[in-house]
Design goal:
It is built from 4 helices and 7 strands. With about 140 residues, it is of the alpha+beta class. The protein is globular. About 25% of the residues are buried.
């Protein structure tokens, strides 16, 4: 659980959220568990467990995740973030091979479905989205 993020809390500040992330049309993501595990193993300050959970911390932010896979493909990822910079989010989407217009997520606890563009607009300010390609 992200530090300071209580289960069921609404987005309270920029970069705070809890979602289930899916691929195109709410289907599986275009990457296997093993491929993502290999990418994450090289990331500083990211702690990956064999059960598919990981925690990634930076200065002033944290991302907790649980990966769900079946038949060799990632089905979804449960993500809980506290003050996550947009650049870190963009980096994660790149690892997941999600392009703009692909991917859908379900906001928790409300269960609201959103595309990535709508989600990003609701979580990060316009100035962050304009500068979203900066390194984390």
């Amino acid at each position: 659980r992200a530090v300071g993020c209580s289960r069921g809390a609404a987005v309270s500040s920029e970069g705070d959220f809890h979602v289930h992330l899916f691929g195109h049309h709410r289907g599986p993501l275009a990457i296997s568990f093993e491929q993502l595990e290999a990418r994450l193993a090289e990331v500083p300050r990211l702690y990956f467990e064999p059960d598919g959970s990981f925690v990634w911390r930076g200065e002033g932010w944290q991302l907790d995740a649980m990966i769900y896979d079946h038949d060799g493909r990632l089905q979804s990822i449960d993500l809980k973030a506290q003050r996550l910079p947009l650049a870190v989010w963009v980096r994660l989407l790149g690892w997941l091979r999600l392009e703009p217009g692909e991917g859908e997520l379900q906001r928790l606890p409300a269960g609201q479905w959103q595309d990535l563009q709508t989600f990003e607009a609701s979580v990060w300010s316009q100035s962050d989205r304009t500068a979203g390609s900066a390194s984390p």
